[in-house]
Each structure stands twice: as structure tokens, then as C-alpha cells.
Design goal:
The complex is a heterodimer of chains A (118) and B (337). Chain A is of the alpha+beta class and 118 residues long. Chain A contains one helix and eight strands. The longest helix of chain A is centred in the first third of the chain and has 19 residues, at 5-23. Chain B is an all-alpha fold. Chain B is globular, with a radius of gyration of 21 Å. Chain B starts with a helix and ends in a 16-residue tail after the last helix. Classes of the chains: A alpha+beta (118), B mainly alpha (337).
């Protein structure tokens, strides 16, 4: 069965625009504190992201293994190479940090990492 | 299913759809302005062509707004409230997308005037078409160095593609609204102008590829360059088929063959509907408008940001794409404008 024009165009454009986008996303090299996969003996005093070029972080989301969100204090939208967010008291468990922002060249970028508190 | 399609979430799919639709509408609007020059002697047809340009411009404007709101929504965590968050909208407008959106919107707004019989309508619409083409040079490739050369080449390349893309609905109108010989004249005129357009596409595209890729070795060592090679092979094949069609069906219409115009209309309709046989039973793949219909797909690749090229082959890509130390997937982004 033949597809009509619109789905064909959309699918084609999606393939050609998305494949490279997902393959070569505009990300600066990042380091995180805590490190991805780290196991901590106490809750982290801060969550830090380090970029090699300025990034305007617009969202930081901290969730535990059950998907429950925890509040994090941070300043949005400032172009920084060292970003810090402050979490509240965290009980032992596994946590995932997701972040989004605009990279120095104006493209959206995002990332995530996990850590465990024993 | 390719992994990148499996990774799609709803918002990203919407962003891609808005981007694809926005590209198409902008190209049709700008290209139709140029196509009015071919149709300028045929008042009845001109009305339809002008309305088509205005409609494409209107939808294009809406999609520009949608792109901005969707980008803000993404930055704010894929929520509806983020799409109208003034701080996030300000951030988006402060970047490449904002600048390109302002220029493109101004151009599309000028094209919206085309159906109205005002004194400076044609001039404003022509300037609008140029602004739309130039807006593609404000994102992606053209932001690299040498900036002025890349900007000029992307603008010219985009304008040529827009003209070709917009010719399809314009030629379809011709088969319906004007006498056969007049339609034949339009097809012939388009065929002649298409030769110049192809020359522009080849020269501008070749220079862009040379400036962006830089070496023959890159043609098989970078994914982006392989997309360019795919595009070149694809377009070369289409152009070969288009040349064959120009030498067959169009001369029949010019010769007054009673069935030729219907056949031509059928071919154009098939081009729009996609991929069936024309009324004469010939495969339609040899019509130049097929190239026009598909060129936006390859143009999408051509407009990908230069930074992606630099990322290819980077030995640290896993680290760059990882959100943390362990190269964990997740440091990526939705498609740029």
C-alpha cells in the first residue's frame, strides 16, 4: 500500500534531520559530581556539571528509582561552564539526574547520570 | 526500526514535524514568489499562484511560532507550561533559532501580501522570498567559516531549491487553468529556467560540500559526508531522469497532441500523490517535479548544523554524548532549526 505525500515527506524529513541530530548532538564534554554510577556514603551537598563551553542549563530533574522527584535549587539560563544545583536531604537509594539546556552554539542539549546513596 | 526512531518521544516527534513542515512551507512560499514571474502573463493562473504563496506563508508563520514554543517546551522538561514560559521563550529567541525565526517570519509576512493588489506587493514579496532564503543561512552550516561565503552559498542554494519545489503546484495549476499551448509554453519556460537552477544547485552545492567537508577522505570517514554523497547520487539520478522527460512529454504537449496535456496533468498529480503510473502507462519517475518534491528531503540534510560535522569522527564522541563519566547515553538534543 502506498503512503500519501504528507507521511512520506514527514518520514523522509524525520529520517534525514533526526538521524544526524541524534548521532552528533550538540553537547559539550561534561563531567558530573557525583560521577555517573558513583556510590556515596552520604547525600551529596551539591550536584555539579562541568562543560568545556558555556551552557545555559534550563532544567535539572532529580528522581529516585521509583520515579519520585526531589526538589533541587539552581539558577536557570545562565551561560556557565561550571553549574551547581543544591539538592535537599536525600534518603538512601538510587537517583538519576536529568538536565537540559542550550549549548554555546544555541542548540538544545541534555544529559543524565545516576548515583547511589548507601 | 532504527534506534533513533525508537528513541523518539512525542515532543521530539512534534519538533521534527514542525521543522519539516516549516521548511516545506517556507520553500514553497519563497519559491512560488519566483514562479509568479513565469505565470505573470496569465491573469487567471496568477491569482491561484499568489494565493498558494500566501497560504504557504501563513502556515509557515504558524509553524515558526510552533517551533519556538516546542523548543521552549523541550528546554523546560517537555511540559505545556514551559512552552509559554517567558524566560525559556526569551532564551530561545536569543539564540540561532530566534534570529532565523525573526528573519523568516518577516519574509513570510511580506509574502502574505501577494494576493492583494497593492502598489509594492510584488517588490515586497520578492524581498520576502529573499529573506526566507537568507534565513536558512542563519542556522546550521552557514555559521562556520568562512561565514560570508557559506551564508551566500546557503542562501543561493536554498533559493534555487525553493523555486524548483514551488514549481510543482504552479505547473499543476497551469494544466488546469490555461489553454494547452499556454501550458506547454509554461512547461517549456520552466524547463529552460530549470537548467539554470540546476547549474546554480550544482555550483553552490559543490562549493558548500568542498567548504564543509574539506577532503576526499572525509567522504567515507564521516557520517555527514556520506549523507552528502547519498544526496548527490540521488539528485544526479533524478536529474538524468528529468532530462529524459523533458525530451519526451513536453514536446508532445507543444505539438498539440490531444492526450498529452491530460498525460502531463496526470504526471503532476501522480507526483503529488506519489509514485503510480501515469495515464500513458509510463513510469513517472522521470519528471523533473519528482526531483522538486524530494529535494526538500535532501535539503534537510544540507541544512544540518556544521557543528555536527565537527563531531563526526571525534574520538571523544562517546564522552561528548554521555551525561557523565561512563559515556552514558543521554547528552544529546532535539533537531536544530
Amino acid at each position: 500500500m502506498k503512503m500519501s505525500l504528507l507521511p512520506r515527506l514527514t518520514a523522509g524529513l524525520a529520517a534525514l534531520t533526526l538521524a544526524p541530530a541524534l548521532a552528533f548532538g550538540h553537547a559539550s564534554k561534561t563531567e558530573t559530581t557525583p560521577a555517573d554510577g558513583a556510590t556515596l556514603t552520604s547525600p551529596p551537598a551539591a550536584i555539579e556539571l562541568t562543560f568545556d563551553t558555556p551552557v545555559r542549563v534550563t532544567l535539572v530533574r532529580l528522581m529516585d528509582g521509583a520515579g519520585e522527584s526531589y526538589e533541587v535549587d539552581y539558577t536557570r539560563g545562565q551561560p556557565v561552564t561550571a553549574f551547581t544545583a543544591t539538592p535537599g536531604d536525600l534518603p538512601p537509594g538510587e537517583y538519576t539526574v536529568e538536565w537540559r539546556g542550550l549549548s554555546h552554539d544555541g542548540h538544545p542539549t541534555s544529559g543524565s547520570f545516576s548515583f547511589t546513596i548507601d | 526500526m532504527p534506534q533513533f526512531l525508537a528513541d523518539l518521544d512525542g515532543l521530539t516527534a512534534l519538533m521534527i514535524a514542525a521543522k519539516a513542515g516549516g521548511y516545506l512551507c517556507a520553500l514553497v512560499a519563497a519559491g512560488t514568489v519566483a514562479f509568479t514571474a513565469l505565470a505573470s502573463r496569465h491573469a487567471v493562473m496568477l491569482i491561484g499562484v499568489r494565493r498558494l504563496a500566501a497560504l504557504a506563508a501563513l502556515v509557515g508563520l504558524l509553524l515558526v511560532g510552533a517551533q519556538i514554543a516546542l523548543r521552549a517546551a523541550y528546554l523546560g522538561g517537555s511540559t505545556l507550561s514551559a512552552a509559554v514560559d517567558p524566560m525559556l521563550l526569551g532564551l530561545v529567541m536569543d539564540g540561532q533559532l530566534g534570529t532565523a525565526s525573526i528573519v523568516r517570519s518577516a519574509g513570510l509576512a511580506a509574502i502574505l501580501l501577494l494576493p492583494f493588489d497593492l502598489k509594492l506587493t510584488d517588490l515586497l514579496a520578492a524581498a520576502g522570498g529573499l529573506a526566507v532564503a537568507a534565513s536558512f543561512a542563519l542556522v546550521g552550516h552557514a555559521l562556520g567559516e568562512p561565514r560570508w561565503a557559506l551564508s551566500l552559498l546557503v542562501t543561493v542554494h536554498t533559493a534555487a531549491i525553493a523555486y524548483w519545489v514551488a514549481a510543482l503546484p504552479g505547473l499543476l495549476l497551469a494544466t488546469r487553468q490555461v489553454p494547452q499551448l499556454t501550458a506547454a509554453g509554461l512547461f517549456d519556460a520552466f524547463g529552460r529556467s530549470a537548467l539554470a537552477v540546476v547549474a546554480v544547485l550544482v555550483v553552490a552545492g559543490g562549493l558548500l560540500a568542498w567548504l564543509l567537508i574539506g577532503s576526499l577522505q572525509a567522504l567515507w570517514t564521516t557520517d555527514y559526508a556520506m549523507l552528502v554523497v547519498f544526496k548527490l547520487v540521488f539528485v544526479a539520478g533524478l536529474l538524468g531522469l528529468a532530462a529524459r522527460n523533458k525530451l519526451t512529454l513536453t514536446p508532445r504537449v507543444q505539438a498539440g497532441d490531444p492526450g498529452a496535456l491530460a498525460a502531463l496533468r496526470g504526471v503532476v498529480r501522480v507526483e503529488i500523490a506519489g509514485g503510480r503510473r501515469d495515464p500513458d502507462g509510463d513510469r513517472d519517475v522521470d519528471h523533473p517535479d519528482r526531483a522538486a518534491r524530494l529535494i526538500p528531503l535532501t535539503q534537510a540534510a544540507a541544512l544540518l548544523p556544521r557543528a555536527r560535522l565537527s563531531a563526526v569522527g571525534d574520538g571523544d564522541r562517546a564522552a561528548a554524548d554521555g551525561g557523565g563519566h561512563a559515556g552514558r547515553p543521554g547528552c544529546t538534543g532535539p533537531p536544530a532549526m
